[in-house]
Amino acid sequence: MTMLGGYVGKLLRVDLSREKITEEPLPDEKILRKFIGGTGLGARLLYEEVNKKTKPLDPENRLVFVTGPLTGTTVPCSSNATLVTLNAECDQMIGTSHSHGFWGPLLKFAGYDGVIIQGKSKKPVYLSISDGGAEIRDAARFWGKDTHETEDFIKQDLGNPNASVGAIGPAGENKVFGAFIENDYHHSWAKGGGGRIMGSKNLKAVAVYGTGTIPIVDPQVLLEASRKWRRKIFDSPSIGNSMARAGILFGYKYIESQNILANRNFSQSTFPEYAENIDRIKSEFKVEPTSCWACPVSCCYRALVTTGPKKGFLATLSGGGENTEAAAANVGITDPGWIVYMTDLYDRLGMDSGAMGMSLGLAFELYERGIITKEDTDGLELTWGNATAAEALLRKAVNREGFGAVLADGPKKAAEKIGRGAEKYAIHLKGGGLNYHDWRAAWSVMLGQIVAGAGGRWEGYGVDVWAVEPDIGFAKYHDPHSVKGKAEAVKKTQFKKLWEDSIGICWIAAWGCPGALGWAAETVGAATGWKDFTPEEAMTVGERVTNLQRVFNLRQGFEAKRDFEDIGHRLLEAPPDGVAKGKPLGPHLETMIKEYYSLMGWSEKTGKPTPNTLEKMGLLDLDVATR
Amino acid sequence: MNQVLVVDPLRCSGCRTCESACSLIHFGESGSSKSVIRVIAFKHEAFFYPHVCHQCKRPYCAEACPVDALQRNSETGIVELDKEKCIGCKLCLEACPFGAMTIMDDGLAAKCDLCGGDPECVKFCDYGAIRLGDADQISQVKRLTEAEGILRAIGDQPRKVFDTAKLSTYGME
Q1: Nearest CB to B14; choose among A74, A214, A290
Q2: Which of A164, A174, A603, A605 has a Cα-to-Cα distance from A395 of 20 to 30 A?
């Protein structure tokens, strides 16, 4: 047998109930070539690991962390580690999330392509993975600590400042909505509620460190292709003009011009004061971009607040604007110091602002509308922009205290508990969060978030905003508020993205980057030795993974009607102002979803992949009916 | 004229692509342990120092080597290692004041050879933190940078080129 490069060849299995750690080989080459790694391989593994009765917080649920064959190489942004598990926010769905920094590469250097964690520990523990082994260690001392403190304490405990630590905060411990896993101070496995699941297993953190290497079959080809690819990334407008070097802090003119700045629980669609103050972060504070493994972009940044009420605070944030919009703009906060402070607070407490931020936004709006009063809110005045009230409420939600307990399970459940017509104002997709910009003004992204297989998240994103995708035939932007071509664009970008989510890179390396699809196929071929790997095969992998997620969800009991109905009403209404004013997506949604189903080869009625589609994708062995 | 590898920690983002490129070009594997360039990270300070061999003019590693496996190429200035001669005694490791020597898993020494003059790490540093160039040219860039800072600070002040009356201040009369 020829050597298979890119992979290091082993999976680690950790059973927390039995305190047993074992190693197993990766699935055979046939499976690997079909599903590669990351989301694809993770979903394939999880499909076998759980059954249709398993619930997210059951000990039987698995945390499946998987890298890809490119993770830990010179390929741009090859830092990816994907978490696949049952979705703790969106019932009956798979949950996927990706984190970056150094955790994924270090896991491979330790000798493992992935880790499967199952069971439930009797007491708080953390897992330490290092060269050729792992250890379950006591974490009682760290319980209650925030994610950044935990990272520091565990590095001290291990005596290794160069380890990477993925940790939950109080949010995960208390299993609140949107709880995530934070690593390397800046990054997180954010979507799908992985932090809740870790909390349910009494697992505080997973630390990794390794000194091994990854074999590459054709290093010359890999080096050459990665070098060309790295240069080209900056040609993508979503990166060159928006993400690079903490670029989102320069990017708000564009966001405002497209009216996609999500704010005040979507009750508005423009917020010039917020956009201006984001600019002040860059010009007034001490901002330093930081990077992940092999990243030429550096979208993440540290911001030392130098003026205003939060002077002296150092925030370590991830790139992009979703986190700050959801943490700050969504409750009307505009002070630049408070913006970075609140965003960092979500990270430290260990939760996705793009999920829990909507609980807070809902509470503020209900208060402003007089639907709830001080009597409901434990005396907090939830007026737009009241930052101290927002912080107090967030801490209450994390600790499930008082009114916070009402919000702790997300906006959909909070609205049900509050009643009084609150449902109208709850922003959610299938009960979970979304990538937090105002997609009412960018219909393809909204459609993509709605039909995404793992709940509201970046899968299909079309070509309405930020970048076009010349590699898959979209050289021009689409009209963001038109039905035409949306389903097709969502389908194709979803295939491209889920392929990229399966090979070990961060999407930032490929979004709108001309040539990236070819280089991705070429580098996967060079790393593994599959020298005939083509861009077409890459897109087929994406299509297969899209179908696999669907099959997975259907097995867990997911019904297609949720694609049409389980959506916060306001997301389908027209925004009150801006370029999309008077243009609601709602009336067109059914047509668009049915067109998407039909293009996917799924039944328009049941949303199930037809037997023909499953056969084409080589997924017949996973048919819902057979399990 | 010697080409030297010069690092600028203020430009380094800590991405460690250089380590991967170094290990891939020399060993066909990706991983810091097979790289002779190492990024030293001070994460709390967000300060990163790409650590390289300085290709010393009087290399202690070579002086310590009992079998002459290490020699400075006077033409290129590269301190070269002859793997055929190396006996794996690790004396070079002890002699190098900077920690630039490495012992690989074959038990033999390894060190930076500047990839024969076209270093892979430089090609992969998108931040300009690792550069290869003529020593004086590299210093000239730093001189310029410093001078530009001074220009920005006092550049709008009146010039004193003709202000000979004050020369006495400097004892130059």
Answers
A1: A290
A2: A164
What's the domain count of chain B? 1
Q: Cα distance from B13 to chain A (closest Cα, Å)?
A: 6
The answer to whether residue B51 neighbours chain A at the CB level (below 8 Å) is no
Provide mean pLDDT across the span B124-129: 96
Could you tell me if residue A530 is inside a domain? yes
Q: Is residue A551 part of a domain?
A: yes
The residue-averaged pLDDT of A510-524 equals 97
Q: Is residue A216 part of a domain?
A: no
How far apart, in whole angstroms, are the C-alpha atoms of residue B136 and residue B140? 6
- B-chain CB neighbours of A298 within 8 Å are 13, 15
| B161 within domain boundaries | no
CB A512 within 8 A of CB A237: yes
Average pLDDT over residues A82-88: 98
Q: For an interface test with A, give the residue of B10, B12, B17, B127 to mutate (most A CBs within 10 A).
A: B17
Q: How many domains does chain A have?
A: 3
* Interchain CB distance below 8 Å, B31 and A292: no
**Residues A463 and A495 grouped into a single domain:** yes
Residue A318 is part of which domain span? Answer: 260-425
| Per-residue confidence band for A626, with pLDDT thresholds at 50, 70 and 90 | very low
- Domain range for B93 is 12-156
Residue ending a domain, choose from A208, A235, A250: A208
Q: What is the pLDDT of residues A124-161, one digit of tens each?
A: 999 999 997 999 999 999 999 999 999 999 999 999 99
**Is A404 in the same domain as A553?**
no
3-class secondary structure for A325-394?
Answer: HHHCHHHCCCCHHHHHHHHHHHHHHCECHHHHHHHHHHHHHHHHCCCCCCCCCCCCCCCCCCHHHHHHHH
The nearest alpha carbon in chain A to B105 belongs to A212
Q: What is the CATH number of the domain that holds A80?
A: 3.60.9.10
Structure tokens at B79: 């301190």
Angle, CA of B144, B145 and B148, to the nearest 5°: 85
Q: Is the pLDDT of residue A627 over 50?
A: no
Q: Do B124 and A298 touch (CB under 8 A)?
A: no
Report which DSSP code applies to B84.
T
Do A266 and A354 fall into the same domain? yes
Domain with residue B145: its CATH number is 3.30.70.20
**Using the beta-carbon criterion (under 8 Å), do B15 and A302 form an inter-chain contact?**
no
How far is residue B50 from each of residues A423, B7, B96, B97, measured CA to CA in Å? 54, 7, 17, 16
Please tell me whether residues A416 and A449 are part of one structural domain.
Answer: no
> What is the helix (H) or strand (E) element at residue A97, kind and residue range?
strand A94-99
Confidence check: pLDDT of A594 > 70: yes
Chain B residues within 8 A of A288 when measuring between CB atoms: 46
Q: pTM (2 decimals)? A: 0.95
Same domain (yes/no): A414, A528: no
Q: HSE (CB half, 13 Å, CA atoms) of A387?
A: 17
Q: Check which CATH number belongs to the domain holding A566 and give it.
A: 1.10.599.10
Q: Verify whether the Cβ–Cβ distance B46 to A302 is below 8 Å.
A: yes
Residue A294 is nearest to which of B17, B31, B41, comparing CB atoms? B17
Residue showing tokens 């913006």: A339
**Banded pLDDT at A239 (limits 50, 70, 90):** confident
A36 pLDDT above the threshold of 50:
yes
Say which of A74, A215, A296 has its CB closest to residue B20.
A74
Question: Is B41 inside a domain boundary?
Answer: yes
Nearest to A33 by CA among A452, A472, A530: A530
Which residues in chain B touch residue A74, judged by CB atoms under 8 angstroms apart? 17, 20-21, 24, 30, 124
pLDDT, residue A287, reads 94
Mean pLDDT over each residue of chain A, to the nearest integer: 96
Best residue in A100, A165, A291 for a mutation probing chain B (most B CBs within 10 Å): A291
B78 belongs to a structural domain: yes
- Looking at the fold, whether A313 and A362 belong to one and the same domain comes out as yes
The span from the CA of A450 to the CA of A589, in Å, is 10
Strands A114-118 and A63-66 turn out to be antiparallel
Q: Compute the count of residue pairs across chains A and B with CB atoms less than 8 Å apart.
A: 81
